[in-house]
Design a protein that fits this description.
By secondary structure, the protein is an alpha+beta fold. It has 5 helices and 9 strands; from the N terminus they run αβαββββββαββαα. The protein has one domain: Electron Transport, Fmn-binding Protein, Chain A (Pnp Oxidase, Chain A, Roll). It comes from Methanosarcina barkeri MS.
Length: 147
């Protein structure tokens, strides 16, 4: 079982820390070494929030503090932790009008199928807006017929 999983079970909470692209090497290092063999607690500056038991990484642009709701056992050492976000944390420099700004955060995206890290690419379109072009082009009926 993973060292982190034991802590989540014991404390009934966890954090999701979103690293930026400039943290890719140190983030990968943390995934390579086990907390059972190497103390990783000094690698980052940590802080605690409302739940007082879920360490968060100050260097990460965005931190989510979560209360454990459920654990899905996928067999072997694979588990999925389901949590309720209790609080979110981000420095002002990563926000725009008090909302996290993805261009300022520059999050790392991990691709499991090929084990690569990626950065966020180009802007593709405005949500709940770009799809209107599809509807206006008469494509709704084509989509319904394809079902």
């Amino acid at each position: 079982m993973h060292h982190t999983n034991e802590g989540i079970r014991e404390n009934q909470c966890f954090s999701v820390n979103i690293p930026s692209q400039n943290m890719v090497e140190i983030t990968d290092y943390c995934g390579i070494v086990s907390g059972k063999r190497i103390d990783k607690s000094e690698i980052f500056e940590t802080f605690y929030g409302k739940l007082e038991k879920a360490p968060m990484i100050r260097e990460c642009p965005v931190n989510l503090e979560c209360r454990l709701i459920d654990i899905l056992d996928l067999g072997g050492a694979s588990e999925v932790f389901i949590g309720e976000i209790v609080e979110s944390y981000a420095e002002e420099r990563y926000l725009c009008n008090e909302i996290p700004d993805i261009e300022k955060i520059k999050p790392i995206v991990f691709s499991m199928y090929d084990n690569n890290y990626w950065g966020i690419g180009e802007h593709l379109g405005k949500a709940w807006s770009i799809g209107k072009n599809f509807a206006e082009g008469g494509n709704e009926k084509k989509a319904e017929n394809a079902r």
